[in-house]
Amino acid sequence: MRFCRTAITAALFVASVSAFSFSGSNGRNVAPAFTTTSRVSSLGMTSTLSDSEVVTEAEDAFTPMRPPIDLPWDKVTSQLVDAFGYSPEEVSAYSDALDNDKEALLKLYKALEMARGFENACNQQYMQGKIRGFMHLDNGQESIPGLVDYAIKNGDKKYSYYREHTHAIASGVDPGAVMAELFMKEGGTCKGAGGSMHIFDKETYFQGGWALVAEQLPYAGGAAKSILLDRALGISDDENIEKQNVAPPADDDRISIVFCGEGGSQNGRMAELLNSAAKDNLPLLMLVIDNGRAINTFTPDIATNSNVYEQGKHYGVPGLLVDGLNAGDVAKAGKAVIDYVRSGKGPAILQVHTYRFNGHSPADPEHERGRKEEKMWARAEQDPIKKFEATYIEKGVFTAEELKAARKEVLAEVKASVKFADESPMPPESLAKELEYPDAVDTDYNLKTPPAFADEVNARTISPEQMATITTHIEALQEKARAGDISIGDAINLAIHEEMLRDPTTTIHAEDLQAGSSYDIPKLTQQTYGQIRAADEIIDEGHFIGKALGEGMNGYRPIVELMNTNFGIYGMAELSSAGNTFATTGGQFDMPMTIIGAGGTAPNQALGAEHSQPFHAYVMGIPGLKIGTAASPDAAYGLTKSMIRDNGPCFLFAPVKMMKESKGTVDLGKCMPLNKASLLHEASQQTVDRGHAVTVLTYLHGVKESLASIEAIQEEGFDIDLIELRSLKPLDMDTIATSLARTNKLCILDESTKSGGVGATISARVSEELFDLLDAPVKRLCMDDAPVPYASSMEKAVVKRGEDLVQGVFDLCTGEY
């Protein structure tokens, strides 16, 4: 099909501008090959393209790769009856409620026009360079924001993906704030920190805007779980969206809704979400926007079954397919599905068959098979706004003049949003650093007060028998701590119980949770606090880290126990987003999540490569994440308590081979700082004066190796300042500097690889910031870049140990660099 230059230029500049021409009395949309099409931009610019300018081969009928679906209302009714248990009369009532309410229909029409007009304005501003980066427009899919406007409430939790502008506005987010966010202005929803793909608004519970495909699925599951937690604990959000000791109303019918494309729904996260949503009977709607394109690729080319609404059958989750061309049907049927979820019957899937009028983003070349032709055809034949106009004018509900007036009103609001964005100031440069962490790095967590409602919530959710059992358990652990006989695993377990009783909004997720996992970290949590607060999880860390993120955004303090921290590799996307959330949302959403697990690589560990990865080094590059290590029960206890109280994401690594063997005392009731290292051994002044002292930095198993090596080092006439890096990020440069001012030599016994490891980061910072304190090059004793072998004979060549430290100190003190 050949398109003239005029049509191509118009398509590129206006992208998917609605043709505001009403159909004839027969209600059919007419293809542009046989009409003169008036294309009106969101700011009122009009260009008229004749039939010969649009398509030069009118005689050739275009056959789309993905044909429209034949889904009249009677077929929608049959689905609602068969899959959702509605009676025909109940379905008819949903239809009548909208079709007989002119005001509701007009509101729906305005929502459609707002979505179209706003996206057209976005496209124009993008072409003018006022919107930067990636932008993804929603033209052609207006029936979805129409449904949101019609049936979704303010208190519902909304999780969308990167094509979310219209979902946010339909949820009640101010269009001016959305446009200002796209303009990277301080008046934006996230103060310009998020951009087009990250729209968040705390007041309307619009919780993203997530850029990694399908990552939002488990987050929405966690948000749905937070609704159940509110009901179970008898707490709710106050006017500042902070938890208060007031139960949700008896008719609380909040739900969580997650938007996902049919391409993204092929992601394994969908199956995991269906499983957990069905298992926990979550109030969750999975709204699948089926435009037939995974980015620009034709979805059937890569997916065997695009009928996502049927995916839930295996889990007992009903689904409904509707035609996005008919916004009225989507609103009526969608509300029936939403009410099913609201009634407490469990999760559901709503799949909306639609067509996207634009490419994936304005920056994409759209070379995929059939995409450009499909767009032109869809704009003419599958426009939900044209369909709405034709349907309700033919029925006599509206006149053309009424709808034109409504559209004019909406476009004025769109124009005002652009003006607001234009006039908003840019955010200050200093804001970037202010948004790094919710809590300052030097926070004293001992001064944080618990919720005033803690005792009351505990009394109504923990039985006297459960309280007696856990009190006895805690007292036994505290006695061990006083006697110096508590292990690292038990110390963490003690801290967790103390904090879960101190703050009932604290929850925990783990595999093998009921059994205490591998090191007793979650022992007796489910037996004490129930499944609602202590959840046994499927074997996919990404899934339950994601659910924890959703809880954290909704007033809870989730703990995630990983058993082995290397399993967190499954959750890298979720960990990354947890670190970014506070900043990306412009500081609206704290992210109080604590991740704990055993990890690291001990000499002679004999666990092989996959269980011996330096995951602590992998996550150090994630912004917004505080990372700590604990090689003793005291450190494990104090850091755990602080991390649970912190309002941002924290990750505690404990040494996998020392979880039960390392015993010691604990400073009970005390939180440790999250930004400080600990001087475990100080070199004698005599060795310092002779230049025979070295600063040694280490962590995890390196602490045990170093402590065991001190005697051998001293026998050679040398000594060390041994510093345990209890905070890998932020790094305690002050403690390092104080020691280097004495020794002027630095050795790092590092439990990560030579390339990209912890030691590499520390060495670089010391060289940049403390170079004048060095009398010798930094000595790095790090793991080789080779995978860690199972056989001890080979492993010795990869993993450094105490004997390497002794040699390293000798080399530094004798000049053998």
From TrEMBL:
One GO BP on record is:
pyruvate decarboxylation to acetyl-CoA
Record keywords: Ubl conjugation included?
no
Record protein name field: Transketolase-like pyrimidine-binding domain-containing protein
Q: Which domain of life is it from?
A: Eukaryota
InterPro entries, alphabetized: DH_E1, PDH_E1_Alpha_Subunit, THDP-binding, Transketo_C/PFOR_II, Transketolase-like_Pyr-bd, Transketolase_C
Enumerate the GO terms in the molecular function aspect: pyruvate dehydrogenase (acetyl-transferring) activity
Q: Which keywords label this protein?
A: Oxidoreductase, Signal, Thiamine pyrophosphate
Q: What are the required cofactors? A: thiamine diphosphate
Q: Which residues form a coiled coil?
A: none
Q: Which CDD domains match?
A: TPP_E1_PDC_ADC_BCADC (cd02000)
Show the Pfam families listed in the entry. E1_dh, Transket_pyr, Transketolase_C
Per UniProt, residues of the Transketolase-like pyrimidine-binding domain are 486-661
Signal sequence span is: 1-19
What is the species of this protein? Answer: Ditylum brightwellii
Q: Does the keyword Transferase apply?
A: no
